[in-house]
Every structure is written in C-alpha cells, then in structure tokens.
Design a protein that fits this description.
377 residues; 9-stranded mixed sheet
Length: 377
C-alpha cells in the first residue's frame, strides 16, 4: 500500500509481434548498427539522446520526458536461455514464466490468486482487449476481459430495457442453477456468475471519471484511458493488462514502427499525466515488454524475428535509469545473427512481484532470480 492509502497497481502493456530493440533504444554512436542496417536505421540527428551512446527513436518524446523526470527504468538485453523465434511459443514462455516446459497457468493469474486468495473481488485483474491473454489465465481466478468499457456488459445491444432485464434474469438463473452439478457445470456456473457481477460493477466506472487529459483516439490511448477510469473508480483492481501491435515489422519497418511507438508513447504519456492529475502517479507501475527483438541485420525494408530484447518499467515510484547491459553487436558476441540476451525476464518479474506488489516471487515465476533495484523504497 502506498503512502496515500491506495493499493499499488500494475499495468502491463504487451507489444505484440516482436518489438525492434535496436530501433527503440538506438545505439546511435555504434558504427556496426549502421553497417548492419543500411536500409532500416535511424540517423543520429533524429535520435532523442539519453547519453553519448544511446537514445530513443523519434516519436518517443513522451517517454523521453518521463525519462528526464527519473520515472523510466530501461531493462536491457532481456530474454531467456535458448530463445524461440516463434511468436506463439515465445509469448507463451513470457506468459507462463516457463522457458523449458509447457505451462497451464499464467504468471499474472497466479499473482491475482495470491492477491485475492478467496476470490472476493472478480475485478482484481482486468484485461482490456479481445480474448484473455494467457498471462492472466489461471483456473479458479476470475479476470474480466473488456473490449469497450463504455458498452461493456451483458446484452448491451438490447435497446428495450424490459427485454434486457428479462435476459439478465434468465442468465442469472441459468448459471445459478448450474452450481452443485458436475465439475464442468460448476465451472460454467461460477464463470457466468463472475461475468455478471464484473459487468455490473465495471459499468459504473466511466460515469464517475473526470479528467483534464485528452487521450488519443487510437486503440492504445483508449485502452489506457479505460485503465484510468477503472483505477480511479477504486474497484479494487490491482492488475491491468492491454496489448498493442503488430510489431512484426518484416517490411516497411521505418513507417510502421514509428507509428506504433507514437501511439504507445503517447498513450503512456497521457496516462502518466492523468495519474499525476489525480494524485496517483506513485501508486502505479507500468511494465512494457515484447516477446522478442529483431535480427541485427535488416532484410532490405524490415527486420526478421530475433532475440535479446528491451523492457520498460515506468512510474512515479520507479528509480529511473539503465538496468542490464546493452548487448554487443560484434560478430563474435552475436547469437546466430541476433543480440544475445544477458538477463532473464523472470528477474524483472521477480522485482515487480516482490518490491512492488509485495508478493513472494518464486512460486509465481517458477524459481528464484536476482532482482533489480528499480523500485524506490
């Protein structure tokens, strides 16, 4: 719990498709970067310089502002042993924290279970987007998955209120009557009851929200506006999740990557301004990650699947700076033409779980990993 009496919350932003590390934090003073990327590189004069070696790509000005304020931790060289270049398998590894095995529980689903072991609050975890990311999946742990907060609910398209009321009553009776049967029916009954309860509560959030911040109309901006609405409604949500992409820039990367980061950085900047306006910037940490980076050499107009990536932890209680080592691009240091990871992603997870959420990390991330000192005491 923070000093102002609010519980600490975590917002996870998944950059789906494999974000290009080298064109996000640009090694603008490294000749090999320009040698290997004659077509897909960012010129030094365009870079938002952090020091005499590295800088953000153009379009990340809102994140650069937060960096200058000491609120951005950059986690360099993040990954895992024996990297997998499949989107599906690599994301599954990040979601379950199991690089060598196939897991059936998400790391955040386990965290939600620890935060609310009795399942008293069906909104401890909320996902903004279609479907449910595996990171949040855990048997017996309810998570609301919201496409559009303004219209979220059961049967929202029914204009006749009496018909909608009848449908809701039927739904409640149907699922309520399913309890006490076999395991499958019990599961369906609980899922239906949780959905009904969560929809009813979440529907109140937009009505009580007021802010001077105007978010962009793109999906990233609107997702983070929804996060803010639920957060400020004090519904007990501790873990928020959303994703943006696709960052799978095999071709036309310079234009696509610029637009994607303009949206992500803009959304983060607006969200942090909203938190500050409401006196909550010290209550929230943002984790930004992608399943892998891209290859060191460009392919003519884009980059292919690689390894060794970058993550960000952002917030008022974050001790900003560089963490981990930027991987070498020298040929002898490469991993089959890729950047070589030098810190396990579960170290970042462990830091967030223990130092931010106050949870024991080992059973959630399947082992003990060295933490970073990136959360202020």
């Amino acid at each position: 719990m923070t000093s102002n009496g609010h519980n600490r919350s975590l917002v996870v932003i998944q950059l789906s498709g494999g974000n290009d590390y080298l064109n996000t934090l640009v090694p603008y003073n490294e000749g090999l970067y320009y040698d290997y990327r004659p077509a897909v590189s960012i010129e030094p004069e365009q870079v938002l310089k952090l020091d005499d070696q590295y800088g953000f790509r153009p379009g990340m000005e809102p994140v650069k502002r937060l960096w200058d304020e000491g609120k951005v931790a950059i986690v360099n060289g993040i990954g895992y042993p024996n990297p997998n270049r499949s989107h599906f398998r690599s994301m599954d590894i990040w979601h379950t924290a199991l690089p060598e095995d196939i897991g059936n529980e998400g790391w955040l689903g386990r965290a939600i279970r620890e935060l609310d072991p009795k399942g008293d609050n069906v909104l401890t975890g909320v996902n903004f987007g279609r479907g449910l990311p595996r990171a949040l999946g855990c048997r017996g742990v309810p998570v609301a998955s919201v496409g559009n907060l303004e219209t979220y609910g059961l049967f929202p398209d029914m204009e006749d209120e009496s018909l909608r009321k009848f449908a809701l009553e039927t739904f409640a009776k149907m699922y309520g009557g399913a309890r006490g049967g076999d395991a499958v029916m019990d599961f369906l009954g609980q899922t239906g009851t949780d959905a009904l309860k969560g929809a009813d509560i979440l529907r109140t959030a937009p009505a009580v929200y007021s802010s001077g911040v105007e978010y962009a109309a793109d999906p990233m901006g609107q997702s983070l506006k929804s996060v803010a609405q639920v957060l400020f409604a004090d519904l007990g949500t501790r873990i928020f999740y959303t994703q943006h992409g696709s960052f799978d820039t095999h071709s036309g990367e310079l234009k696509t990557h610029a637009q994607l980061w303009d949206e992500v950085a803009g959304g983060i900047g607006d969200f942090m301004d909203d938190l500050k306006e409401h006196g909550r910037e010290d209550d929230v940490a943002i984790l930004v990650f992608s399943e892998f980076g891209r290859r060191i050499k460009d392919n003519g107009s884009g980059t292919d699947h690689g390894s060794g990536g970058i993550a960000f932890v952002i917030g008022g209680s974050v001790d900003g700076g560089m963490y981990g080592e930027y991987p070498s691009m020298k040929e002898e240091d490469q991993l089959d033409g890729d950047l070589h990871f030098n810190n396990d992603f579960r170290s970042t997870y462990s830091t967030i779980l223990e130092d931010w959420m106050g949870l024991e990390a080992a059973p959630i991330v399947n082992g003990r990993f060295e933490s970073f000192d990136l959360i202020k005491n």
